[in-house]
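To the team - MU-OXO-diiron complex, inputs and output below.
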Amino acid sequence: MPTEKINEDVFWLGALDWDRRLFDELIPLPDGTSYNAYLIRGNEKTALIDTVDPKMADYFIAILDQIGIDQLDYVVANHAEQDHSGTLVAVLEKFPNAKIVCTPKCKKMLIDFDLASEDQVIEVENGATLSLGGKTLEFLHTPWVHWPETMVTYLQEEEFLFSCDFFGSHLASTELYSKDDDLVYRAAKRYYAEIMMPFRNKIIKHLEMLRKLSISIIAPSHGPIYRNPDFIINAYENWVNGPQKNIVVLPFVSMHNSTRTMVEYLVDALFRNGVTVKLFNLTTTDIGELAISLVDAATIVIGSPTVLGGAHPNVVYAAYLANALRPRTKFVSIIGSYSWGGRMVQQLTEMIPKLDVEVLDPVVIKGMPKTADYAALDHLAALIAEKHKMLE
Ligand code: FEO
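Output:
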């Protein structure tokens, strides 16, 4: 599917990356991804919105050859990250008179990344417009979705919003439009959790701004296009600002079964108290699934053994990630076991300064759990249930 027509003058011409399984060498991609670019033909000028990842550059240039455009006037760079801007050099080699249109911060980044030279770029301020002849592009600065230089582009006559990373999903699909709501919702939530969640306070403001626009479709630069913009805008509003759910996310590692015994007991105790638990064995889990669960869980309980005086390294990684992703979690606790001492609790609590949480009394014990330890876990489960009820 090299190109798809959205209407007579607007085309999708992206690239599907079916077998990519990792993004930024960090984020698991169970469903691959797509890099969506869009071509808009006005009466006088033609513009390309974003390009594709450099690994697909040859494919993308072949598509441009195939559709036979003889003139390209502008390439809008909504975002400087290489999966959208990495093919700018190849596109401008083919169309040397085309100008890149982007925010001032994006211009600086493109020059820093060697993707453009000073004279190739037109900077646009927030709210600036560009006429293609019967088609007007409006540029709306939306910093931090996903980097500080990002913007979205609004095609006024058609009310199409080209949102780049914002509202995206890592989903390689031959269906241009979102059809399977459950599948797309899950992929978009994963994308939000892994990429957008740290910036949710900025996103709240961007959503307020977009609610004032009349939007007929949202065309992101990853994943399917939304013909029902409310589907994804409502989802985002819920993820950034909705109520925290009666859920405990429990990532854990156990070396000699002591921590696992505690984890399993706590899961039962939480269940008896009416609390849902999402359990993640950090030696095998997909870290993206853990991130999705953090979007709306009220509590995180970390389970760890003690290794060389501190938490297990996989637990340290998960705590670092949770702190970086900044979920809206309200409560945190720590459970685990040690053999000869350590400072695991202090280490882990110091690792999460960005989480605005109340730390509930940890249950960290020596060796296997005994009667008093089970009582402490019962107390923790009851306390979590009580705290969650207060959120309702
Ligand atoms: Fe799809 Fe932030 O790049």
